[in-house]
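for the recovery benchmark. tokens below, seq after
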């Protein structure tokens, strides 16, 4: 089949488990009664597969085909989603559902490796450039579907069947979608993959040799420690904010939250929030293409930092008007989308040179680690201090974002 038959659905499928692990799990566990400390700690550990993904990417490259890995991981994702659904009504629902989310996270991270590799192997360079827009667009559509539509569906079901059953039904619906996508890809994915520069099964040497070579290439980069600090700490405020923003929206007024319904949260973050995020990213890419990242670095740092203030306002004012809350979410996500452009472009610039693809994958591992560790402690801080002081602390952490941005600015050529 032609690439358009499988590229949109492949990247839609790539988005679903990632958003389920990173977003749906937080909302679900909040509504099921976990404290901020518990849900932040448990769900932050789910970042680990993306942190250590470079360790087993050589296995995906060397054994079996990318097509086999894609189909297998999609079935495993479907099975883990069904596992979450079936374990929620049990007495050990927390441990068992977390185990299923762990399986989902590892399957999703492995699927990312295989899908990106398959895209390169199945298409020539002209087609890769032609379809890259469809690839990113349908990934974003999958994100909107998951954290917007599915969250609103879960909220509607909560009002009728209770929290536990509502999320069981939602997870079963996602499982059915993933299995259907696996069936479609069994039919639509090309069965032959061309070999590119030693890709595939016929590779000489140790399985770990590519990873060792990648580490050498990574370590040889100039001003390495400045770059690593930037990768880890640029998103320090956002790593904490992202973990607590939705629980803050869902908690009761007495708990310092806004007491929104699950449906309202899904609309705020899954529709308006995503629109703001995409618009900020598009504008960020456009302005950098005209004047270069060095010219726009500080405006982007301000954009990703200053809008965090809206959460201080929300935590103190606790407005009940949805339009005010939605406007604040839109503003924060718009600034984040614009500012995050600087982060991703720096990773691209830093990765240029020898083994650029593998070095970039290693950079994304540092990116995931930078989200994982601060997120683990965000819930504890919110419980200790309350949301008001917590959001003030988050805004204070933006000073670190400015400091690490100053470290790497000298390395930007344009």
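predicted aa per position
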């Amino acid at each position: 089949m032609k690439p358009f038959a499988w590229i949109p659905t492949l990247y839609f499928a790539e988005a679903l488990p990632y958003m389920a692990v990173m977003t749906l799990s937080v909302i679900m566990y909040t509504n099921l009664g976990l404290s901020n400390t518990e849900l932040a700690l448990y769900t932050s550990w789910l970042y680990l597969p993306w942190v250590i993904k470079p360790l087993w990417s050589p296995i995906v490259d060397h054994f079996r085909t990318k097509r086999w890995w894609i189909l297998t991981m999609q079935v495993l994702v479907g099975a883990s989603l069904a596992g979450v659904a079936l374990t929620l009504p049990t007495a050990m629902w927390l441990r068992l559902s977390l185990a299923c989310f762990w399986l989902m996270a590892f399957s999703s991270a492995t699927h990312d490796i295989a899908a990106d590799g398959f895209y390169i192997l199945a298409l020539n360079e002209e087609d890769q450039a032609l379809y890259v827009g469809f690839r990113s667009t349908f990934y974003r559509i999958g994100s909107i579907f998951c954290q917007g539509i599915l969250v609103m569906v879960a909220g509607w079901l909560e009002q009728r069947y209770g929290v536990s059953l509502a999320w069981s039904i939602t997870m079963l619906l996602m499982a059915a979608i993933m299995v259907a996508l696996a069936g479609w890809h069994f039919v639509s994915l090309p069965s032959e993959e061309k070999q590119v520069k030693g890709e595939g099964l016929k590779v000489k040497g140790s399985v770990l040799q590519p990873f060792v070579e990648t580490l050498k290439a990574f370590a040889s980069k100039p001003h390495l420690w400045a770059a690593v600090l930037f990768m880890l700490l640029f998103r320090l405020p956002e790593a904490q904010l992202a973990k607590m923003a939705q629980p803050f929206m869902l908690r009761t007024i007495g708990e310092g939250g806004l007491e929104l319904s699950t449906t309202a949260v899904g609309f705020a973050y899954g529709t308006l929030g995503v629109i703001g995020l995409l618009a900020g990213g598009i504008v960020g890419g456009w302005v950098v293409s005209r004047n270069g990242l060095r010219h726009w670095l500080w405006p982007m740092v301000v954009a990703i930092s200053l809008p965090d203030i809206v959460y201080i306002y929300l935590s103190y004012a606790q407005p009940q008007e949805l339009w005010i809350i939605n406007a604040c979410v839109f503003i924060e996500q718009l600034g984040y989308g614009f500012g995050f452009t600087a982060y991703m472009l720096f990773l691209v610039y830093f990765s240029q040179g020898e083994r650029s693809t593998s070095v970039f994958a290693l950079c994304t591992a540092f990116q995931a680690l930078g989200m994982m560790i601060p997120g683990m402690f965000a819930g504890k801080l919110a419980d200790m201090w309350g949301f008001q002081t917590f959001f003030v602390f988050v805004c204070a952490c933006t000073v670190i974002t400015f400091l690490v941005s100053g470290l790497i600015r000298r390395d930007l050529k344009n």
